[in-house]
Automatic annotation (TrEMBL):
InterPro entries: DUF7347 (IPR055771), DUF7351 (IPR055775). This is ArsR family transcriptional regulator. Residues 133-321 form the DUF7351 domain. It comes from the Archaea. The lineage of its organism: Archaea, Methanobacteriati, Methanobacteriota, Stenosarchaea group, Halobacteria. Pfam families: DUF7347, DUF7351. Residues 15-83 form the DUF7347 domain.
């Protein structure tokens, strides 16, 4: 009987055992070559034993190679044994004389592992300043944007307010079709804005964007969070995933970007919040229109205004909208 409290990976092994399987060059090469063969489209390719060995470890003794390959079968690699399964391969499989009728491909877990490594890999130094055309809502100074150590930071050099500070994979700077260096600043910012919106909205909607688990929610006094210019912030909502450890801090305005009422009110007033970078959406990027009505329990109001048109939403301790005014 399996102990319910003991986690098992999708490949039915304890997580640490699954990690320990990776500590070998031949195995690492097998996983990488199976991923390389994929080439970005189609279903996972299936490679025959000989083809995989020729790519991953041509010098290795066959039985030693097979030993390492079989160690990966289950958690990271699956054997494909029937003609029908072979048919799922994305390209014709070269059959060599004497090959067993068996092929190998990455499992979803193996694909995810390699995809994570690829997502955080880049072919050149990535740190760079990015030209940005947006002024600070507080002091009017033009913002600065910098990508450094996998963090996209957008801030105001005039008053130090931080508009965005997000872990963002270097894929946002990488050229499509491996043309590194061809991505201009505007494209990088567009991609980073979309990537971060996706992450933020998943947290706003209560789902971990990495593992799909639910996330908890807790209001925090901004002065306790270490953010610069905490004095300019009214409230932050920390949402965290107890399953994978992923977490994020959201302004109440960012939380409200999930609300159809807000999306349609903004659209009626000429702003598409599903496309506009969050750092350009004043009620989400700053707390200038956010009012803390109480802290025990928390109740926080956000005014979304366009000229004389105003929509006010109040969010309670459970991060649910409990009141709505205006916006007619
Ligand atoms: Zn400023
Ligand atoms: Zn998670």
């Amino acid at each position: 009987m399996r102990d319910r409290d003991e986690p098992r990976t999708h490949g039915r092994l304890p997580p640490e055992t699954t990690l320990s399987l990776l500590s070998n060059e031949v195995r690492a090469s097998i996983l990488w070559q199976l991923s390389e063969a994929r080439g970005g489209d189609g279903p996972p390719p299936t490679l025959s034993f000989s083809e995989l060995k020729a790519l991953a470890a041509p010098e290795a003794d066959s039985s030693r190679f097979n030993y390492h390959l079989q160690e990966l079968v289950g958690p990271y690699v699956e054997r494909v044994e029937t003609e029908e399964q072979w048919g799922n391969a994305s390209r014709p499989i070269p059959r060599m004389a004497g090959d067993p009728e068996v092929g190998y491909q990455l499992t979803p877990e193996g694909t995810t592992l390699i995809r994570t490594i690829r997502a955080w890999s880049a072919e050149a130094a990535t740190d760079r300043e990015l030209a940005i055309d947006h002024d600070c809502d507080y002091c009017g100074t033009t913002l600065t944007a910098r990508y450094e150590n996998a963090i996209l930071a957008i801030e105001c050099p005039g008053c130090e307010y931080l508009y965005d500070y997000n872990l963002t994979p270097p894929g946002v700077l990488t050229g499509v079709d491996d043309e590194f260096g061809d991505v201009d600043d505007a494209d990088v910012l567009d991609r980073a804005a979309e990537y971060n919106r996706t992450v933020r909205l998943a947290f706003a909607r209560g789902v971990c964007p990495y593992c799909g688990n639910g996330v908890d929610a807790e209001f925090q006094d901004p002065e306790d969070t270490g953010y610069p210019r905490g004095d300019r912030r009214a409230a932050l909502i920390r949402r965290g995933c107890s399953h994978c450890g992923n977490k994020d801090n959201l302004t109440v305005g960012e939380l409200l970007l999930r609300e159809p009422r807000v999306i349609s009110f903004c659209l009626d007033n000429g702003m598409d919040v599903t496309r506009t970078p969050i750092w350009e959406i004043e009620f989400a990027a700053t707390d200038r229109h956010t009012t803390v009505r109480s802290t025990d329990p928390w109740a926080v109001a956000v005014d979304v205004t366009f000229g004389d048109d105003r929509l006010t939403l109040v969010v309670d301790e459970s991060v649910t909208v409990v009141e709505e005014e205006g916006g007619a």
